[in-house]
Amino acid sequence: MQTNTPIGIFDSGIGGLTVTRAIRRLLPQEDIIYFGDTAHMPYGDKSTEAIQAYSIKIVNFLLSQQCKAIVIACNSASSAAYKLIREYVGNRALVVNVIDPMVEHVAEHYAGKKIGLIGTKQTVRSNVYKKKIDDMRQGIQLQAMATPLLAPMIEEGYAGHPIMAQVIRDYLNKAAFDDIQALILGCTHYPLIKDMVDDYFGGKVDILDSSEIVAQAVESKLCRFELKREDNRQGNAQFFVSDYTPAFEEMTGLFFGEHAKLTLYPLWE
Ligand code: DGL
Description:
The chain is of the alpha/beta class. The chain has helices spanning 17-26, 48-64, 75-89, 100-109, 121-126, 128-135, 150-155, 162-172, 194-200, 210-224, 246-256; strands at residues 7-11, 32-36, 69-72, 94-97, 114-119, 141-146, 182-186, 206-209, 237-241, 262-264. The protein has two domains: 7-97 and 212-264, Rossmann fold; 100-210, Rossmann fold, CATH 3.40.50. D-glutamic acid binds at residues 11-13, 15, 41-44, 74-76, 119-120, 123, 151, 187-189.
């Protein structure tokens, strides 16, 4: 592993650009290689085995680009494949997922409290957040619910729309979420509806978006292994996808805050 090699980031599609944006803000000097598996998205409805197989193939690509770190910028892939990826990568690169930094954050701030989680079917079914939060032994009670309509609606541009507010209300208006102190946005698309979720709770519940927490985790891991670039430069960012459509490229603005040029890399041919 070398300091001047890129950080590899992957997601099922374009949603991981919310995490990429936070990493780029915090570590502008680093080069980034992003891979969005648009040919197979959404991962949230796939089996664990399928997500594992896709993830290993993408990790191979990122390793072939000499990435010093691999960030799994997808909750569904983090819940299905993190352990496998860590074993597979070994000491060839650092591996960061989007779940552990959030679990550490809630363990530190919400001991003895009740908190909620929303995410894809895969993320919720895997129970990974609950297992990891229980392992922290902080007496945190977690209520998790799959909210599968939210990611496709965000992709269709419904963030901010009254129909989205209605769907959010319908999902969150459940007794299980009474008295929660915080809600984890357990999907990389959800930062785009953070304000709407906050409005639903009238500002009384902390809405936890992992993108910045994950970016900080990437920085501290790079520092710990003396792999953080310290030179004053603007890093390059390259964005690859396994299937290209103009619609994917248009969506990059939503998630990344600026247009990103996507390059087709047909990993499955
Ligand atoms: N990126 C996925 C996640 O964070 C959401 C989209 C999908 O289901 O692929 O879970």
